[in-house]
Amino acid sequence: MVVRQVTPVPGNTVIFKLFGSVGLVSGGRLLAIQGERQRTLLATLLINSGKVVTKEQFFEELWEGRVIAKANNALQALVTRLRKLLRTTFGPEFAAERLVTLPTGYVLHAEPDEIDAKLFERLVALAHAQLGPNPVRARDLLTEALELWDGPVLEGVSGGPMCHSSVLHYEESRLAAIEDKFHACVVAGIEGGVISELKKMAMLYPWRERLAEMLMIALYRSGRQADALREYNVVRRRLVDELGMEPSAMLQDRMQAILNHDPSLDLVPEVGRRAATG
């Protein structure tokens, strides 16, 4: 990690985008990056913000290990074009301060809140700290985090292993954040309004049992015990028929609790009730 003080851009929070079209944001307007390799270059720098990306790593991401004639010259041309775009968009001082050439490679300096993906991670971390004491606040933070997504991760980027692993990481993080948001609603006792969203997500991601669990609880708390049990049976049939396996012990226990009208299913933590009504 290369620690460096950077001058913030006045009036901007997110100025670099990895969600949706990879590009820059200036004055609230997206400046999309033209050319797949140019987008891959920026994405690689942003994924490693504050860290040196070696020329060898760039070669792997930009050309996926293929031997390219005059690869150094091609890389330099891409960096020069990006630096010119930064200079045109944010000024010469910004370009000189943020995109730095080193003997071993290049580094782009950015504050975490200036990159949508890094801001997303910070908001999710703040939400996790609030899930217990204030689930409504956690829900709001997760909503804010998820609103940063306006398209697939690294849209328009092919890239090598670094970009591919980042896509998988952020897609999983997004699904986990969606689950956490539903969980916060259920804990706060305000699950009624999310049943339709839960149904949609459970259909899109049938193997994520946590979604099925929360849908079952939400249905049960809304007075729909039969629907909750029906949801369990749908999940069980799918798992047995397609994977040859039974639902997890967690989901089976939840089904039994719903079947037996377990009082614990009706409990909403006092802090959750206060936050929901406050």
UniProtKB/TrEMBL annotation:
Cleavable signal peptide: none
Domain (OmpR/PhoB-type): residue spans on this chain: 4-110
Family that this chain belongs to: Belongs to the AfsR/DnrI/RedD regulatory family.
Name of this chain's protein: AfsR/SARP family transcriptional regulator
CDD domains named among the record's database cross-references: BTAD (cd15831)
InterPro entries: AfsR-DnrI-RedD_regulator (IPR051677), BTAD (IPR005158), OmpR/PhoB-type_DNA-bd (IPR001867), Sig_transdc_resp-reg_C-effctor (IPR016032), TPR-like_helical_dom_sf (IPR011990), WH-like_DNA-bd_sf (IPR036388)
Organism expressing this protein natively: Actinophytocola gossypii
Record keywords: DNA-binding, Transcription, Transcription regulation
